[in-house]
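Filed under: proteins

Residues; backbone shape codes:
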Amino acid sequence: MKHMIIPLIALVLVVGFGIYESLSVYNTYKEFEKEIDNLMQLCYDEDLTEEIFADFCDYWTDVREKSEFFLHHNDVYEITLRIGEIKAYVKQKDFDLCVAHLSVIKDLAAYIGHLAIPSFEHVM
């Protein structure tokens, strides 16, 4: 019985950290999607400013730094590239291109959130 205690503790810790990771990434990217929706609405209203977008970039930097530990860097890097492109469009006030790239970022964020929660589909 004593020989089973340490492996059981290890198993509980691994499962616990796995659940924490999944929920943390999922919730982080759901919030990120809401921020993208806010930016898209500002684009539709043509109210998106460089200052507002700079705040969003700072927010993304926080999300990126927290999620790089858990996620594939390709997905995170793609979002970073798109955000870099949007900076130029915000400066030019090209709101149509901002919305287009924000839509792609939102799809990537939804995809990452979907992958964070394990399901039978992911195993097969």
User: Anything to note?
Assistant: The helical segments are 2-44, 50-67, 73-92, 95-116, 120-123. The two ends are 36 Å apart (CA to CA). Residues 82 and 101 are 6 Å apart (CA to CA). The chain has five helices and no strands.
